[in-house]
Fold this protein.
Amino acid sequence: MGERGRGCCPPMDLMRSEPMQLVQLIIPIESAHLAVSYLGDLGLIQFKDICACLGKWRLLFVFIDAVTMVVFGEMLSLIIMVAGFFLSESMFSVSSFSQLNAEKSPFQRTYAIQIKRCGEMARKLRFFRDQMSKAGLPPAARSVTQDTSLDDLEVKLGDLEAELVEINANGEKLQRSYNELAEYKLVLHKAGEFFHSALSSAEAHQREQASNQTGEESLETPLLSEQETAIDSSKQVRLGFITGLVPRDKSMAFERILFRATRGNVFLKQATVDEPVIDPASGEKVEKNVFAVFFSGERAKNKILKICEAFGANRYSFHEDLGKQAQMITEVSGRLSELKTTIDAGLVHRGNLLQTIGEQFEQWNFLVRKEKAIYHTLNMLSIDVTKKCLVAEGWSPVFATKQIQDALHRATQDSNSQVDAIFQVLHTREMPPTYFRTNKFTSAYQEIVDAYGVAKYQEANPGVFTIVTFPFLFAVMFGDWGHGICLLLATSYFIIREKKLSSQKLGDIMDMTFGGRYVIMLMSLFSIYTGLIYNEFFSVPFELFAPSAYVCRDPACRDATTVGLIKARDTYPFGVDPAWHGSRSELPFLNSLKMKMSILLGVAQMNLGIIMSYFNAQFFKNSVNTWFQFIPQMIFLNSLFGYLSVLIIIKWCTGSKADLYHVMIYMFLSPTDELGENQLFAGQKMTQVEQSVDGEILFSPYSILIISDATRHQGESYAPLPDTEESLQSGANNDSHGHEEFEFSEVFVHQLIHTIEFVLGAVSNTASYLRLWALSLAHSELSTVFYEKVLLLAWGYNNVIILIVGIIIFIFATVGVLLVMETLSAFLHALRLHWVEFQNKFYEGDGYKFYPFTFTLLDNEEE
């Protein structure tokens, strides 16, 4: 729901949803765009999707309109057209000429072309955002919106996209060329080393042969001398070679495949490149090896080329002449320097262009989204057959009537339209949407209720009571004023930095925590309050308000029972006396206190829920539910658990030792037996006899309710609604989908199930509130364990290191278990108590939310 607290609106009332009305707008087509835009800025109308199908009576007015236009002009034509619209409206109901727009394909609607244009501009903006994200340039915050037409923006975005795409394409080509030249330079260096070492080895071998010639032949003497081989040049074999780079992880497989494919008739030489090389094809850094393959014959060459292509090896030309190698290295180095300068200049130009786009990106993005939302809404409107006006229907709060009329009138003036838009209220039996005006404090509590189910139109809203009861029940389970202070400090950070954090994109968990910051604040405040009542500060009691009322009779009394304690002062003024902590009677005493307190709180909240059902019945003028549902439920619940609550209070006030378990059990088994020491007040025996037969009283009204429902259903029928505000309220309880024939068996079974459900639910719901006692006890005991078994144990060693380790473990255990896990556990249990035990007494939750057409949420929408 919207967060509204401006002076233009009536005072906020969360008990009942805002009165709603179904309105119809007849807008001239020339002012339709501006009217929808102003209504989106207002955010107080929810449009319905209606079709452009108009009644047959409209055809007559089309003909009259055409004739009038020729004779009298456009102004009178529009007046007659509008008059014809109202005349046909009076002859036929709204449903006779309008139907859901779902029968039309999205491509058949009036403004499909404009939506397609907005979608294309949104695609270009997403492209710009991706480019800015890669460049590390965040878009600037949206400034004051300037008047920019959609056509001009479309042209501008197209030019910017074309320029940016061209810059990117040129940059990619230049970078690819640069990476290829960088690889080529490596090949020239590494392959040059191959040939240089081979040439040096050959020259050294020749010198060695020349110096060692003795005229005697040996086994190492060549069979053919140089002179003999020089005689027949046709017998010389000249080897070809291919050089390039291959990925290092593929080099072994590359070598094996070459050997197998050529049957070993190649010579492969590889050298490792020290640093990763940027691959020209992928643009990623890859570890590579420089290779040189020597072969003989064209068939071998073709095989080697195919293998290089299969392994992604980049080939580069190479000349064996040392002079030409040096010349090529010089040329490649010069070209690399030129390309580097050109690439840097291109990056600077691209950065400046993206900077320019980033300055206005948010403004353009908002404008495109706004226009797309406007045209989507215009497609939901029905266009008249004369194509001169649009007909819109939608829900709006009653208080927004004047604001909507002002927005329509302003749109007419700004668009220079000759005819003003028409606003009228329609009467319908359709269930209106539910709209609660909330603020940043109450919105989180309303979301807790809406997560269970949206309230029916003008049904009593549990959110009013949830604001207090939810954090209070949480605190009953979480009561420790030390832990409450920690929660308060954490939520204070979110509240203090509220404006800054609300404009940032947080993670899922952080965003959920920030949204519930005021819920956590009240939870922490109530936890401090209940912690003071329990007198627990990280499980340690303090004499905050006065000294303890008890003193020890002897030194051993602390380990004995409360019999060893003597009351020496006045009763401790607020909360649990610190003397109870650490004694043997602590657990029985606190168990009894918290268990009885849980029952009292549960019965009180369930009674509140039943009382709210009475106010619902009175509001909707349903006397049957008042007499035959509210009264029996109150009698049954309070005859059992209300009576138990009274006994608990009397026992606390009188200090009696009566066994309440025995009293409640034998109230039904033996109601006439004497109570003995279990008697708490005079006349208790007769009171319990009366209470034991109250269950029979419950079923009689429900049988009457069945007969009353039969009479009520038989008398129901549909009729035209009167022109009063009460029509919507009475219509809210009627079925808008038609009337079914009354079946007595169905009503009987329904009421029987409802009766059994309430009777059994009253017992189970009361027992469910004992979770307040169980979780409070668990939280207290866990806190005690961490304090005594970690912190005090580490303190007893008189060792600084052990003490530091103990403090660290204590802090992590307190934060992780008590402040995170226990907080979540208590939150979920408090949620269950509200959804199941409280709201099922009166809350139907079968309504639907009011989602007005507004531009305020466009910034938070995902693409």
Observations:
- The radius of gyration is 43 Å.
- The chain has a mean pLDDT of 81.
